[in-house]
Design goal:
The protein is mostly helical. The chain has helices at 5-26, 42-52, 54-63, 72-87. It has two domains: 1-30; 34-88.
């Protein structure tokens, strides 16, 4: 059986070098475009509001936020605003 040097060169030179380039490119951080205000659109805050459930109301009670007659989005917005002030 004859040894094909071209195949070995392809593997070492082209295929592995290409794989190295792909891996290097994947390490470059890509800046995602995010809304400046998390609550600017319904689509941006809906996952939080859908999954928060009772935790949203428990956190509001812990922070002393009145929840009666308020939308979940308003409650979450106030919670985030208070936590940003505390974190500053």
């Amino acid at each position: 059986m004859a040894f094909d040097r071209g195949r070995r060169d392809f593997l070492g030179r082209d295929l592995l070098a290409g794989l190295a380039k792909i891996l290097d490119a994947s390490r470059i951080p890509v800046e995602e475009e995010r809304p400046r205000d998390y609550f600017a659109t319904f689509e941006s805050c809906q996952p939080l509001l859908a999954d928060a459930g009772e935790l949203l109301y428990e956190e509001a009670a812990r922070l002393g936020i009145e929840t009666a007659g308020r939308a979940r989005e308003d409650i979450a917005r106030e919670i985030f605003a208070r936590l940003e002030v505390q974190g500053s």
